[in-house]
Automatic annotation (TrEMBL):
Claim: Transport is one of the keywords in the record: no
Gene: pyrF
Protein name per its UniProtKB record: Orotidine 5'-phosphate decarboxylase
GO molecular function (one): orotidine-5'-phosphate decarboxylase activity
Natural source organism: Psychrobacter pacificensis
Gene3D superfamilies assigned: Aldolase class I (3.20.20.70)
The enzyme's E.C. designation: 4.1.1.23
Length: 232
């Protein structure tokens, strides 16, 4: 495994077959980015995709966003971590007990996989949040779930880079902020609502930038990744 990587970029492998995702991985340098396997690719390929990316020396964020009762969440996190991935995640709204148990299960099994929790999806704005019955503002809800995640002993959260400044102040420098919804100024926002540029995200305190379509749908993904790395 590549333990020397200091790039903040995590490329999201979405909208792809096994062959296409491996062809993309083969164009990218594991010293310049990590890769994210989400629900779509994992449902399509299973653990074999993780193995294939590990063989290519990539660190993998397995983004399955578990959200279930505490025992089921903890067991799913354990089995995911046993694949040797760098990072796994749950939804913070699964609650304190589910998150604490999941973290404890990793510790009991001597697994150092990072465990983070999703606060409010970056595809949601305040109207979408309100439709789910949450009447507090988006910022209040994100901060509340981040604090709950920290209380449960997790390593950090998924949030928008728009919340990074606030969450670093609230949860401390060591609490990892993993931020999707990253777009260059000339990119399409697609279904993302709370977006930010790579450089602004890092300035505001993001630790890791999750970037999917901006790179994967570029004519030359490796060149786009380099352009992004140069911009930061
Ligand atoms: O709040 C969240 C949590 C996860 N994601 C995931 O990140 C990528 C973003 O892809 P783009 O193509 O750059 O929009 C995608 O895999 C999501 O499942 C997120 O966007 N927001």
């Amino acid at each position: 495994m590549n333990n020397m990587i200091n790039s903040p970029v995590i490329v999201a492998l979405d909208n792809m077959t096994l062959q296409a995702s491996l062809a993309l991985a083969d164009q990218l340098d594991p010293a310049l980015c990590r890769l994210k396997v989400g629900k779509e690719l994992f449902t399509r390929c299973g653990p074999d995709i993780v193995k294939a990316l590990h063989q290519r020396n990539f660190e993998v964020f397995l983004d399955l966003k578990f959200h279930d009762i505490p025992n089921t969440t903890a067991q799913a996190v354990l089995v995911a971590a046993e694949l040797g991935v760098w990072m796994v995640n749950v939804h913070a709204s699964a609650g304190l007990e589910a998150m604490s148990l999941a973290k404890q299960r990793l510790i009991d099994n001597n697994l150092d996989t990072l465990l983070i929790a999703v606060t409010v999806l970056t595809s949601m704005d305040s109207d979408a949040l309100m439709q789910t019955g949450i009447t507090d503002s988006l910022d209040v809800q994100v901060s509340r779930l981040a604090q709950l995640t920290k209380q449960a002993g997790l390593d950090g959260v998924v949030c928008s880079a728009q919340e990074a400044k606030t969450l670093k102040a609230l949860c401390g420098q060591d609490f990892k902020l993993v931020t999707p919804g990253i777009r260059l100024a000339d990119d399409n926002a697609d279904d993302q609502k709370r977006i930010c540029t790579p450089s602004q995200a890092l300035l505001d305190g993001s630790d890791y930038l999750v970037i999917g379509r901006s790179i994967t749908q570029a004519k030359n993904p490796a060149e786009k990744l380099n352009r992004i790395l140069q911009s930061i």
